[in-house]
Write a structure and sequence with these properties.
Elements: H1 3-17, E1 21-23, H2 26-31, E2 45-48, H3 52-65, E3 69-72, E4 87-90, E5 98-102, E6 107-110, H4 116-123, E7 128-129, H5 142-148, H6 155-158, E8 165-172, E9 177-180, H7 196-209, H8 211-217, H9 243-246, E10 254-262, E11 264-265, E12 271-277, H10 280-290, E13 297-302, H11 303-310, H12 316-322, E14 329-335, H13 339-355, E15 368-373, H14 376-394, E16 401-402, H15 416-429, E17 436-439, E18 444-447, E19 450-451, H16 456-475, H17 487-491, H18 494-498, H19 500-513, H20 563-567, H21 586-591, H22 598-609, H23 621-628, H24 635-639, H25 646-661, H26 665-671, H27 673-682, H28 684-692, H29 694-704, H30 734-746, E20 757-761, H31 764-769, H32 771-783, E21 787-790, H33 805-809, H34 813-831, E22 837-839, H35 842-849, H36 851-855, H37 859-867, E23 868-870, H38 871-880, E24 894-898, H39 901-905, H40 909-916, E25 923-926, H41 945-954, H42 956-962, E26 968-971, H43 974-984, H44 991-998
Parallel strand pairs: 2-4, 3-4, 20-21, 20-22, 22-23, 24-25, 24-26
Antiparallel strand pairs: 1-2, 5-6, 6-10, 7-11, 8-9, 8-10, 12-14, 12-15, 13-14, 13-17, 16-19, 17-18
The structure holds flavin-adenine dinucleotide (FAD) and iron/sulfur cluster (2 copies).
The site of one iron/sulfur cluster has 15 residues, from α21, α22, α24 and α25.
Length: 1001
């Protein structure tokens, strides 16, 4: 039956009966066609059921229509188990409840869609956690972890999911509900009518029948997640628990609805011994001896990873703190035994490495020793180094990428050194390389050779490497699938690993539970070839035609001057689905829709530019919807492990759409604001009338889409005046202003920048709506002895300068470029002399460093990017140089500070905190916030105001409401201040205002 034949009935029935999301459009299906593997299979449709009952009904409808079902959590699997031409049931949006929590018994029962980090946050107050700490904890769901039999970095102590799941409630392929739990001897706890009785009998029979095969052919390593867990039913298994057949079954045997988990006490104060080695081989060889000291983890960082981390300024202090000399590898050996015992274990660790012949006094392979790390902050920083080193590796911009297919083989520790050496040779033989990292404790090291799967020759190399690697693993009685599961990548190789007889037994299990193949078919058993390119994300027909782009993407390969390569940087790892910490991705945090997360947007773009979503997909309404809730916060630019910069990509989409379809009235009102602002300031009463008369508000909503629930910024006549005197008083005439400028130039007769000169950009928003901020900045700078030039146009026009941000926001790139070029020309005489350009509005100043160089290719643009500084950034720099030493007086006891997203994206928010800390007696606290939700014009839209307010409510607005009246609320962004005003009824201050108060201006 083809998709076209079955879709209408399936979709109609689902839409009639399911209140959760039912998505059958091309864009939605495309967004669910990939996981974190290199495969792509387009599903028939997607359902995000609101309740378990709806999930069951969805399965029933699929069954009635004869289509298969693919359960899905965070979609972060690396082996292709979460892609299929089935009906996807997304558990991650709604099925996130904790049903029962028994603190005393340390157990809980949860729905499958709950994310591990979210669960652990809820358990923390009780001193408990679920300890299978996968690296994807911020987005991996318990359902996905269970079905993948996932393992964390501390599996040496806690084991895999199989060791931590007590029972599972599941729906079988025929709709039967069943409780998969422990089976008593003689099946005495399964009543005669129980549907599980025959199944348990069959599994125990297979276990008994295949006992010898299992003993001979099941890998003898802890990290074995491949195949079905038949060993759990062998007569010698420590217990018989039916749940174990579902652990690692990858959605192929049943749909889990409730999962009962064993919880553990949270970890205490830990100690890490950073064991240095002069040779990678020696490090691998040592691992078997180090685990005898019973650490909770032994994690590897190799030389390449250390070098990559060393290229990042923020990691250098960490490396300096724990790396001694130039090791080829470091094993981080972690203990959690209480303070005294931790110390004793580290001494024992030092003695063990000494006994193995390592010493910092030696040279060559036996050089080595221990660096002890007790400080929790340094431990966390070291963990960051390891993860981010991997991210850099993943962020290579070539078409060749590190590919995951032999990434998680596990071998006995005794063979680890030989295995890694031989596999490295295999990579070399096939003209590639790999960097090793991760779980040395359990013989499961990660390594990804770099390959370009668009090329037939690299696909062939992939097969050759896989076959050689798996043969080697089999030789060592290891596991080809030690962490990430089977999916498409490993299932084909089960016969090589387990033997034909056990593979037949796996098929028997599948046929007992899912005889019609309705659950994630083609995974674990009867799988396709792993190098079937028709199932690749970058398949044989994958290509992007040339695209006209507005910005410079030359750092990347592919069509559109590299736009294609920039989009393809998304490898679907799902880090953008985290729900707390950092900024990325505020729209997903509110809606929980795959459409509204960076990954969903990147996938939509990739499919659109390669013609997989039909003609003109880039400028379609579906694409506009996909981009609508992206607030261009640039959170992804900084926090996405591969640096996907969706804010910049959105500009391309807006530009393409504007060119094809023109602008809406709202977009025109927003985009052209800098052009009509001078007139609005002449007649503020007319432009402010909209907020006074409800009828006008309604009309503005109807015709311009501006929400009646928002006030607009209020125009005023007394705007900031470019002709102001250094004292803060406006000049009386153009002639007087010109004379003053000439005098200032004379102050620097050589043309060299004086140390105490700045040029200030009065941006459109502060100039017209909040001139007090600019006045305050001038006052502070002048009080500190700086000569303040105000940047003025040099093109003969009287219209003030503007960075062009509003034009960028609506896709009018030519106009934005024109504005940027005016600024470049205006500030060139200053920045060419090294005078910094200082500004108050983060999105303007940081635009000069980010978007402007991407749209204006000139030396002037480069100079501007080099010299554009935020006000507080400039002052922090000056304070460090000893030139900014203001006499400040106390202004308040506490300041609550919210960072603008762009400040955070550029790592510049610290400057705000640092400069405020100069104010005596001021306790500076930061709101742990994502985007405020206002995001320029976003918050004003009638169609976006609800999401805008919900973003504010995530953390910013509640924190502001909690602050007492004497607390200063500080926010540098105009939009952020507006959101705080509307949502929490408090007036926030720009940091310049706080400093001005502190100098008594
Ligand atoms: C960068 C990176 C790092 C990783 N690190 C680790 C690691 O440290 N340890 C590790 O073990 N893995 C790791 N993984 C792999 C992956 O993140 C884990 O396997 C994770 O547990 C998958 O969770 P998920 O919610 O994304 O599952 P998904 O990918 O959505 O689903 C996984 C499987 O579970 C099935 N499934 C989902 N829900 C149900 C349900 N309700 N009933 C039945 N079947 C269901 C799906 O059909 C699929 O077969 C990593 C992946 C990436 C990209
Ligand atoms: S956008 Fe970045 S964080 Fe999100 S899935 Fe893609 S690569 Fe990962
Ligand atoms: S720019 Fe912000 S809102 Fe847009 S995708 Fe990136 S993180 Fe999400």
């Amino acid at each position: 039956m083809t998709a076209a034949q079955i879709l209408p009935g399936l979709e109609r029935k689902l839409k009639a009966e399911i209140t959760g999301d039912v998505m059958f459009d091309r864009f939605s299906r495309g967004r669910y066609a990939t996981d974190a593997s290199h495969y792509q299979m387009t599903p028939l449709g997607v359902v995000a059921p609101r309740t378990v009952a709806e999930a069951e009904r969805t399965l029933a409808i699929a069954r009635e229509e004869g289509v298969s079902v693919l359960p899905r959590g965070g979609g972060t699997s690396q082996a292709g188990q979460t892609v299929n031409e089935s009906l996807v049931v997304d558990c991650s949006k709604h099925l996130t409840q904790i049903y029962e929590l028994d603190i005393g018994e340390r157990r809980c029962t949860v729905e499958p869609g709950i994310v591990l980090d979210d669960l652990n946050r809820k358990l923390k107050p009780y001193g408990l956690w679920f300890p299978v700490d996968v690296s994807t904890a911020s987005r991996a769901t318990i359902g996905g972890m269970t079905a993948n039999n996932s393992c964390g970095g501390r599996s040496l102590r806690y084991g895999t999911m199989r060791d931590n799941v007590l029972s599972i409630d599941a729906v079988l392929a025929d709709g039967t509900r069943a409780h998969f739990g422990p089976v008593a001897a003689g099946l005495s706890n399964l009543p005669a009518g129980s549907p599980l009785r025959p199944l348990a009998r069959a599994l125990l029979d297979i276990g008994l029948r295949e006992a010898d095969e299992i003993a001979a052919n099941f890998p003898k390593v802890q990290r074995r997640v491949g195949g079905y867990n038949l060993d759990a039913f062998a007569p010698n298994a420590p217990e018989h628990n039916l749940a174990h057949i579902l652990l690692g079954s990858e959605g192929t045997l049943a749909f889990s609805t409730r999962i009962e988990l064993k919880l553990s006490p949270v970890l205490g104060r830990r100690a890490i011994g950073a064991c240095h080695f002069g040779s990678f081989y020696e490090a691998m060889n040592a691992a078997q001896h180090l685990v005898k000291l019973k650490p909770i983890a032994v994690e590897l960082i190799d030389r390449t990873m250390l070098e990559l981390a060393g290229e990042i300024a923020m990691f250098r202090p960490t490396l300096k703190a724990f790396v001694h000399g130039e090791p080829e590898a470091i094993l981080l050996v972690e203990f959690d035994e209480g303070e005294t015992e931790n110390k004793r274990r580290l001494k024992e660790l030092a003695a063990t490495t000494g006994d193995l012949g390592f010493s910092f006094h030696k040279t060559g392979a036996k050089w080595g020793g221990i660096v002890e790390v007790y400080d929790a902050n340094l431990q966390a920083a070291i963990a960051d180094v390891r993860t981010s080193g991997l991210n850099i590796m993943m962020s290579m911009k070539d078409q060749g990428k590190p590919i995951s297919f032999v990434e998680d083989c596990a071998v006995p520790l005794i063979n680890l050194a030989e295995y890694t050496a031989r596999l490295t040779q295999v990579f070399e033989k096939h003209g590639t390389r790999g960097t090793w990292y991760a779980h040395a404790s359990v013989g499961c090291l990660h390594v990804r050779p770099v390959l370009n799967l668009r090329q037939e020759k690299d696909v062939k190399a992939m097969r050759a490497i896989a076959e050689e690697a798996f043969a080697m693993v089999r030789e060592y009685k290891g596991s080809h699938s030690g962490e990430h599961g089977d999916g498409i990548v490993r299932s084909e190789f089960h016969e090589l690993m387990f033997g034909k007889r056990l593979v037949t037994a796996f098929e028997e299990v599948k046929d007992k539970l899912d005889p019609k193949g309705l659950l994630n078919p083609g995974k674990i058993v009867r799988a396709p070839k792993f190098d079937d390119r028709t199932k690749f994300r970058y398949g044989p027909d994958y290509a992007a035609p040339e695209i006209k782009v507005a910005l410079d993407w030359s750092g990347y390969p592919g069509a559109g001057g590299g736009f294609q390569g920039a989009i393809e940087m998304c490898n679907n790892n799902g880090a953008c689905r985290k729900s707390v910490g950092g900024v990325m991705c505020p729209s997903y945090r509110v809606t929980r829709n795959e459409r509204d997360v960076t990954r969903g947007r990147a996938n939509s773009l990739r499919l659109a530019i390669t013609g997989q979503l039909g003609p003109d997909a880039l400028t379609s309404d579906e694409m506009a919807e996909t981009m609508k809730l992206c607030v261009s916060c640039k959170g992804c630019r900084r926090e996405c492990p591969t640096g996907v910069d969706m804010a910049r990509m959105k500009i391309e989409v807006q530009a393409a759409r504007a060119a094809k379809r023109g602008l809406s009235l709202r977009d025109r009102l927003i985009g052209w604001m800098p052009r009509y602002a001078p007139y609005a300031a002449m007649f503020p009463w007319a432009f402010n009338a909209r907020d006074k008369y409800p009828r006008l508000k309604q009309l503005s909503e109807r015709f311009a889409g501006l929400s009646t629930r928002r006030t607009l910024p209020q125009w005023r006549k007394d705007v900031f005046d470019d002709k102001r005197a250094p004292s803060g008083k406006p000049a009386q005439s153009d002639a007087e202003a010109a004379e003053r400028d000439a005098l200032r130039a004379l102050a620097s007769p050589t043309g060299e920048a004086s140390e105490r000169e700045v040029v200030l950009l009065a941006d459109t928003f502060n100039r017209y709506f909040e001139r007090e901020n600019l006045d305050a900045a001038v006052a502070v700078l002048e009080a500190a002895g700086y000569t303040v030039h105000i940047a003025k146009p040099v093109d003969g026009s009287k219209r003030p300068l503007c960075c062009g941000r509003t034009f960028l926001a609506v896709g009018k790139i030519d106009e934005a470029r024109r504005e940027a070029e005016r600024v470049i020309a205006a500030v060139a005489p200053f920045v060419n002399r090294g005078v910094p350009l200082v500004g108050l509005e983060p999105s303007c100043i940081l635009g000069f460093r980010d978007e402007v160089p991407a749209m204006v290719k000139s030396e002037g643009a480069g100079q501007l990017a080099l010299h554009a500084l935020m006000f507080e950034e400039f002052l922090v720099r000056e304070a460090a140089l000893g030139r900014f030493k203001p006499a400040l007086k106390p202004v308040a006891k506490r300041a609550l500070v919210h960072g603008h997203c762009h400040q955070k994206a550029f790592g510049m928010f610290g400057a705000v905190e640092r400069i405020l800390r100069l104010v005596p007696g001021l306790k500076v606290e930061t709101v742990e916030s994502s985007c405020c939700g206002m995001a320029g014009a976003f918050g004003y839209g009638a169609d976006t105001i609800d999401v805008s307010l919900a973003m504010g409510e995530l953390s910013l607005l509640p924190a502001v409401r909690k602050a007492d009246g004497d607390t200063l609320i500080v926010a540098d962004g105009t939009s952020c201040r507006h959101q705080i005003h509307d949502g929490a009824n408090r007036d926030a201050l720009h940091v310049a205002r706080v400093l001005a108060m502190a100098i008594g201006a």
